[in-house]
Amino acid sequence: MHSNTASDQPTTKRQRDPNRPLLSIVVPVFNEEDCLEALHQRLTEVFADLEDGYEIIFINDGSRDRSAQIMRQLAERDPKVGYYSFSRNFGHESATSCGLERANGQTVVIIDADLQDPPEVIHEMLERWREGYDLIVGQRTKRDGETLLTKATSYLFYRLLSRVSEVEVPLDTGDFRLMDRSVVEAFNQLPERNRFVRGMIAWTGYRQTSVNYHRDARLAGATKYSFFKRLRLAFDAICGMSSEPLRWINTLGMIVTLLSFTGGLVVFAEKLIFGIGIPGYAFQVIAMFLLSGVQLLTLGILGEYIGRIYVEVRRRPLYFLAEQWDPRERHEGS
């Protein structure tokens, strides 16, 4: 099942670039020692008959378990595997960005290591790519193994982001997607340090469509995204994709001003016209708490944007590499 989300239909079939493998599979990894062997086996089985070649790029985001050791072993025995290990945990968005910078394929897929996203769907994505689409996103129709809170917050987040974002971000999608080389190269030109990768990819435009799929439960282990990490990602997404929260401050300020003016009129009428005595401290306490809450909310939103400016002007690298194994270097040297 698929649906077109682009404004224009592709008109030409895709031409192969003989100087690149057809497919690069980028896998961000953080403490996934129980999943890596199974993921590699499943990928090799799914793409065993892929004529134009593929590569698997693991990005170790400062894992503290045996993930780096397992990736090293996979790379030693499989010439299609490369890996890059960060000097510490820089975050999922930085790991994904690193993978997109290092991938060499004519198409690039982002997939998590936990096998919640079935690799078999990539074949359908490739078919949409061959039809001329540049960006094919995986759209989840069902999500196994996730709590009601996770599903509810995810549902609300995507609807809110869709409402405030300056570009259309597909609903109910994650990082699982296939991109043409043109999309990858456009993404790699974006200089932001505060990153919401799926939103940045959507911002590049190009011809997009979606492929529906059933998301499985994790193969092993627990999710690395706690409630607070998801909340942090939501703030990054909304502030990175929209200036709408700043407009909310203006609206809120006007509402509070109107309420204060209305309250003053009510007090004036009750005191001077109807002769009703109103204790002064009650009104003062209510007004104090209301205005204090509004000020704190306003400062918080402004601080979020100012903090993002501070991060951007420092111009620090997204990550540092402690170890790398590039499959292209091995092929060139052989």
TrEMBL record:
UniProt-annotated location(s): Cell membrane
Molecular function (Gene Ontology), one example: glycosyltransferase activity
Transmembrane segments: 248-269, 281-306
InterPro entries hit by this protein: Glyco_trans_2-like (IPR001173), Glycosyltransferase_2 (IPR050256), Nucleotide-diphossugar_trans (IPR029044)
Signal peptide: none
Keyword Transmembrane: yes
SUPFAM superfamilies, alphabetized: Nucleotide-diphospho-sugar transferases
Membrane topology: Multi-pass membrane protein
Record key words, sorted: Cell membrane, Glycosyltransferase, Membrane, Transferase, Transmembrane, Transmembrane helix
Protein name as it appears in the record: Glycosyltransferase 2-like domain-containing protein
Organism: Kolteria novifilia
